[in-house]
Amino acid sequence: MTIRIVPKRTSRKDVTIVNFTEKEQCGIVQGKNGSMAISIGMGKRKEITLRKLRVAFRKTISLAKSNNLTRIAIPLQSLAFPHLNMNDVQRGKMIVENCILADYEFTKYKRPQGTHKGNVKEVVLVGTPSRELRQGISTGKTIANTVNACRDLANTRAVDLTPVGLARAAHDAAQGLPVKVTVLGEKEMKHQAMNGILQVAKGSAEEPRLIIMEYRNGSEKKPIVLVGKGVTYDSGGLNIKTGDAFQDMMHLDMAGGAAVIHTIALAARLKIKKNVIGLIPAVENMPSGTSLKPGDIIKTMAGITVEVTNTDAEGRVILADALTYAQHYQPTLVVDIATLTSAAITALGQKASVLFTRDAALQALVQQLGEESGDYVWPLPLWEEYEQDIKSAHADLTAGRTKYGGACAAAAFLSHFTHKLPWIHIDIAPRMTAADGEYLAKGATGEPVRLLIKLLEHYE
Ligand code: BES
Ligand code: ZN
Ligand code: ZN
Question: Does the annotation mark 358 as catalytic?
Fold first, then answer.
């Protein structure tokens, strides 16, 4: 999709004008001189919110796509909403991001000229742009294209994406950018006693990897470390998932890892002035004669023993080692991103990812950045009371026993491996796939890349 700015409305017949109205309905209407127009009803202008505006843009693209309208024109003057207090950089980003995100289709496995509808080739913004608007448009393009690359990676099926493949994808994403990629194999991980990762991986024919990405462009030495769950397929292991447990979606269990890989690439593209490290423990969780067994007790890299009560709680076990490894970097902040629990989906539905942190100021910041970026997050508690849920009779901790409040128990578990550093845990299971009515293609959302990049910019 190309985005152009022109000063005046063109009379070209192949360009469909978009009108934002105060009505409620949206649709294709007869425009001036017999041409078609897209009418987007947004309700009362004064009541419009940033959230609604995002959806309106995505709906515009979705309507254009389903009606094969490949070129659309949006009058900039209709997009002034003084009460939203948006500056032109934000406005430009918002428009472009949502257009590009809504235009995305995952076509890797489709025949060319298959059944899927055509994309929008061109969005023409009509008006006189400020320098800030141009800047917003340019940044928005970079961000949205990276989010879409993240969606492509997450949507790739497990048959084509193993832990080794994910490491390759990290190399590919870093191609041409000042990002150093190092990959630890089994031997190196054995050396470091990363038994959490090794034990979860041992039931699979695919070898595990620990992917390390480094982007250094900050004056301060200490980095921010992003840790992403990279389970390229989660069958549940010997506690195999049943039919209604999204088993056919579990190639997406590396969505956190994909988000970290592409956030690091994006930080480099946007030349963010920070040092950022990405750590992605990559495994496949499979049942076999060599699998980890329910009840097994393993000693993690931190020296903390874990009773794996349920092998489907693999995420927290591999993250434990990655969080321990993060200590090496003496980070100023550790953020982990994981499709960790179905309990998170039960709690919030598909509307927001769950945010956990013990730092109230950080919680407020991340929530606000979520609102600004469109990657919404909502907090749940990290209370000491949840320690009860992760107690084990014979080991230091248990993974996978809880009945209620599973997202909180998982977060409490992870907190044992963060060594009192400033830390945020984001359970993105609710946002693993796009929901109906969001005007986003089925499958991966690419969240929370937009939130993470804002956090990298704002965290001091
Ligand atoms: N990857 C899943 C969580 C998940 C499920 C994400 C569905 C998105 C959609 C995770 O590894 C898992 O299976 N968690 C278990 C934990 C339980 C065994 C304590 C869960 O949530 O059921
Ligand atoms: Zn699992
Ligand atoms: Zn999982």
Answer: no
Q: Which residues line ligand 1 (CB under 6 A)?
A: 234, 246, 253, 310, 312-315, 339-343, 400, 402, 406, 429, 432
Token pair of 233 as six digits: 């397929």
What residues form DSSP beta bridges with 354? Answer: 378, 427
Backbone dihedral angles phi then psi of residue 100, each to the nearest 5 degrees: -70, -40
* Digit-coded pLDDT (tens) for 254-303: 999 999 999 999 999 999 999 999 999 999 999 999 999 999 999 999 99
Q: Quick check: helix, strand or coil at residue 138?
A: helix
Lowest-confidence pick of 110-114, 117-121, 213-217, 245-249: 110-114
Predicted TM-score (pTM) above 0.90: yes
| DSSP E strands, 313-418 | 333-338, 353-356, 377-379, 397-399
Catalytic residue check, 316: yes
Q: For residue 160, what are the CA distances in angstroms to 155, 223, 328?
A: 10, 32, 32
Pocket test for ligand 1, best of 286, 342, 392 (most atoms within 8 A of CB): 342
DSSP of 186-235: HHHHHHTT-HHHHHHHTTSSSPPEEEEEEEE--SSSPPEEEEE-EEEEE-
- Mutate which of 239, 341, 426, 428 for ligand 1? The one with the most ligand atoms within 8 Å of its CB, which is 341
